[in-house]
Amino acid sequence: MDANRVKQILSSSANVEVQYNGASVWIDKLNEDGRTATVHLRGPLEERTIVEIDELEEM
């Protein structure tokens, strides 16, 4: 995924499914470096993780 698509997903009201390593995640924000994003797993656990945006996959 690229930075522009991450920005589009963040600004959209649609529920866009995104996966990281096969797990469904919410994107919290695009980080200032433009190459990483802060995400958390969908569900009760809200542990935040910083990941490379090129490892995110839109379903």
UniProtKB/TrEMBL annotation:
Pfam families (alphabetical): SspH
Entry-linked InterPro entries: SASP_SspH
Keywords from the named record: Sporulation
Family designation: Belongs to the SspH family.
Protein name, per record: Small, acid-soluble spore protein H
Induction of its expression: Expressed only in the forespore compartment of sporulating cells.
Primary localisation category: other
Subcellular location: Spore core
